[in-house]
Amino acid sequence: MEHKYDENVIQVKRVSKKNSGGNRISFTALVVAGDRVDHIGYYLGKARSVGDAIKKASKKARENMVKINLVEGTVPHEARIKRGAAKLLVKPAPEGAGIIAGGAVRNVLELAGVRNISAKVLGTNNKAANVKATIELLKNLKKVENNK
Question: Is the CB of residue 131 less than 8 Å from the CB of residue 42?
Fold first, then answer.
């Protein structure tokens, strides 16, 4: 079954490497892909041109999808994570609250299918670190059983 994935380019950076002939310039592209239901993936692609870096990152982000546990469009419980300099706090929110989050975290949560959540970045402003920490946090959420 073919899934429909949405992709979002979070960041494109020009990077250079010193070598004997001068500087070698290339590009990195941070891409997040998700099905807006419960799958999310990301990749930091590197290539000599912007277009190739984005293509590579998109392809790999779709290959590196992980499933997350959501309960009625929000996270099942409050959670914190610290990965390197990235610190993140997420809390479940009631229906209608929307996504209360900033920066790269908002993009990840939208593509993951989260509809109501409150999130706060407490550490670094590094987009790649925050994306990685957000996906790690979502992946490690515990499954909550509904006993009705």
Answer: yes
